[in-house]
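hey m, so remember when u said the tokens were messed up on ur end? i reran from scratch. heres the input so u can diff it against urs
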Amino acid sequence: MKSMGIRLEYAPEAIPPIHEGICESPDIDREVIVGGQSADGVETITSFVYGDPTAYESLLCDLEGVREYDITPSDDGFFCYLRRDLGPEGLSLLNALAQRTAVIVPPIEVRSDRTIRLTVVGHSSALAAMMEDVPDGLQLTVRWVSDAVTVSGAPVSDRQIAALRAARDVGFYEIPREAGIAAVAAELECAVSTASELLRRGEANAVERVLESGP
């Protein structure tokens, strides 16, 4: 079983109306779908939207097929419950992502740069089929793949954390730098090349996690 983080980018002419509204509105940053389902052409979702509820509600009022919605304001944004009819673009996307042995794992992040980011868990064959069946107007990019069931990319390992902590303790990150990689290696009781590799990978994974958790 594998996990795969993917990025879907819409072409300008193919983007669904509500996603287009998020991209065009200066008052909405992104929407994070935390749960939902679709049945008989009707989609029901719950999400948290980072933005102004009035701006988002105006998008819903202009959108055909909205059956009902409820908005609850909160810090930094609002929660939204939405039921709507799926148009052809929604159905084609769901068909492409629907594989018998694959599961879409929330959250699903709808961003203001015409992209959607999500995680899929399943057998390798199902993930490969998903990549081949992307509808026209969408570009799929694989951001990371893991042999474990996870909703994020490569984590910072225990050894990498130990290396980062040792580097901090000896002053490797001080400005100006108080110690070099040899001091980190001595603290870890390993070769300089090993310490350098642990730090490089740990820093890369740590930065990725920070950026992924941000806007």
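this time it looks ok to me. Helices lie at 17-24, 53-61, 88-97, 124-132, 158-170, 181-188, 192-213. if urs says something different then somethings off w ur setup not the seq
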